[in-house]
Amino acid sequence: MSAEGSATKGDELEELHPTRSLDDTVHQRVRLGILAIAREADRVEFGFLKKHLAVTDGNLSRHLRVLEESGLISVEKGYAGRRPRTWITLTREGARALDSELRALRALVLRLEIPHPAPASDPLGS
């Protein structure tokens, strides 16, 4: 079978490339980092994320907004003493999305680590 696809409908379901399971909302580097860090703690503070992901306030805020609008995190604003703080918590849906992303990444790594026979034709079509 060529990479261009001469598979039957049933074969297509079995042979979808693992990257097809990656979620664009989750897979983006900063958002994946936010979800991963939030998984490690009950809640994480904005400044901690900013420092450990090496992003600006504006950049981090935009990514948090995308995740919050998608229902993957909850954002709580408050004060620690007199200083305003923003805390991020992974939602149940966020945990499921992160788990799904990790499964897709594992499937991709496994696919690339297991030796496969050389294809009958050049899959790149060159």
What attributes characterize this protein structure?
6 helices, 126 residues, elongated, alpha+beta
How many helices in DSSP terms?
Answer: 6
Low-confidence stretches: none
Mean pLDDT: 87
Strand order of the largest sheet: 1-3-2
Distance between the termini: 16 Å
Secondary structure: number of strands: 3
Quickly give the structural class.
Answer: alpha+beta
Outline the biggest β-sheet: 3 strands, antiparallel
The arrangement of helices and strands along the chain is HHHEHHEEH
Strand content of the residues, in percent? Answer: 5-15%
Radius of gyration: 20 Å
Bin the helical content. Answer: 40-55%
Q: How does the overall form come out from the CA principal axes?
A: elongated
How would you sum up this structure, described in words?
With 126 residues, the chain is an alpha+beta fold. The longest helix is centred in the last third of the chain and has 22 residues. A 3-stranded antiparallel β-sheet has the order 1-3-2. It is elongated, with a radius of gyration of 20 Å.
Would you spell out the secondary-structure blueprint of this structure?
Layout: H1 9-14, H2 24-27, H3 29-40, E1 44-45, H4 46-53, H5 57-69, E2 73-80, E3 83-90, H6 92-113
Antiparallel strand pairs: 1-3, 2-3
Short description:
It is elongated, with a radius of gyration of 20 Å. It is an alpha+beta fold. The protein has six helices and three strands; from the N terminus they run H-H-H-E-H-H-E-E-H.
